[in-house]
Design goal:
This protein is an all-alpha fold. It has two domains: 153 residues, Talin, central domain (A middle domain of Talin 1, Up-down Bundle), CATH 1.20.1420.10; 178 residues, I/LWEQ domain. Helices cover 69% and strands 0% of the residues. It is built from eleven helices and no strands. Helix 4 packs across helix 7 and helix 8 packs antiparallel against helix 9. The radius of gyration is 26 Å and the shape is elongated. The termini are far apart. One of its GO terms (cellular component) is nucleus. InterPro entries: GCIP-like, GCIP-like_N. This is Cyclin-D1-binding protein 1-like N-terminal domain-containing protein.
Length: 348
């Protein structure tokens, strides 16, 4: 094929090399996407040591990709591009090799965080190569859907930064997930419920007037005044959920020591049950806005029971490895949970 330059001034021979390099990345991506950890104990694996290696690799890859982008600027330096492709390939290959060392018992949440960061970086470099070649490299749509990846190749550096932010161990991974998907969302739901109840008790709009934009009403429903009393009882149960999630984040997850295999599995299980509690909180709060009176009473009872059961299961699990100095608080939490549950008996 001719060596004449294309619209982006990169020769066909060099484009073929970039295409081949991109296909190598796709193979690595598919491997990482399916990787579930190696069998065996986690004793020989060090999260902090792994993180340090990944940080160094990410920095090295970043430098080579920066040189690559400079070489691709018109007039393209084909010799430099061809010299850099093997180096970029080698960097990502080493990255995946490091991932292949992670044992299953390092923690499901931790492994998911590593796999997602590495996969996004691999997709980013493929998209980057695609911006310089005519015959584009395809990435499995199922992989892209799982990653929810829609960004362009221009954010490659962001994903290199994500590599440097890989958690040091399962405790750090669980702590991050807990804040973003459990305690943070429960806190938001608690505050929104409180505001809605305050507004219902005050007789409507807090500003004493009405918005000119009636189209927003469907996104900001009101709690009927006759449901406020029951809403306050529900608020107490939701507040208990908030305090419980906050306490678990601080005393069970952050202070988890030592991080042995049993505690690693325990942390993953806390995340699973925490998400169940968070979903139950959302469902319970949503029942207050059901229009049909008979339907909302029935559903309120169901969702109250669901949240109470989920909280009880979460507290029971939390006690398994929590420091003895915090046992008293969790026992008190159990009593508060029973009290809140009994106070909601009006919905029966």
């Amino acid at each position: 094929m001719s060596s004449t330059g294309t619209a982006n001034d990169i020769t066909q021979e060099t484009q073929k090399l970039l295409h081949a390099a991109g296909l190598n990345m796709v193979v690595l991506l598919e491997h990482v996407h399916k990787f579930e950890g190696i069998e065996g104990p986690s004793a020989g694996f060090s999260g902090p040591s792994f993180k340090k290696t990944i940080d160094d690799l990410a920095e090295a890859i970043d430098k080579e990709v920066t040189r690559f982008l400079i070489a691709c600027k018109p007039p393209a330096l084909d010799t430099e591009i061809r010299a850099l492709c093997p180096k970029i390939n080698a960097g990502f290959f080493q990255l995946v090799q490091q991932c292949d060392r992670i044992p299953k018992l390092a923690g499901k949440t931790y492994l998911d965080a590593v796999r997602r960061a590495v996969s996004k970086s691999l997709v980013a470099i493929v998209m980057l190569f695609n911006s310089f070649i005519e015959h584009k490299i395809e990435v499995d749509k199922a992989v892209l859907a799982d990653l929810a990846y829609t960004a362009s190749s221009g954010i490659f550096w962001e994903h290199c930064k994500a590599l440097s932010q890989i958690p040091a161990d399962n405790r750090a991974a669980v702590s991050s997930i807990w804040v973003s998907t459990v305690s943070g969302l429960v806190k938001d739901a608690t505050e929104e419920l409180r505001d809605s109840l305050d507004e219902a008790e005050s007789g409507g709009d807090k500003d004493g007037g009405y918005s000119d934009d009636d189209s927003m009403n469907e996104f900001d429903p009101d709690i009927p005044a006759e449901r406020v009393a029951d809403g306050r009882k529900i608020f107490r149960l939701v507040t208990t959920a908030k305090h419980t999630c906050d306490k678990i984040g601080l005393r069970c997850i952050r202070d988890c020591e030592p991080l042995d295999d049993e505690r690693t599995v325990w942390l993953d299980r806390l995340v699973d049950l925490g998400k169940t509690v968070q979903n139950a909180v959302d469902e319970l709060v949503a029942t207050l806005f059901i229009e049909d009176d008979e339907a909302w009473r029935k559903q309120l009872f169901v969702e109250t029971e669901n949240l109470s059961s989920a909280l009880s299961e979460l507290v029971t699990l939390a006690i398994t490895f929590v420091d003895d100095t915090h046992l008293t608080w969790f026992e008190l939490c159990r009593k508060q949970l029973d009290a809140a549950k009994h106070s909601s008996s009006v919905v029966r």
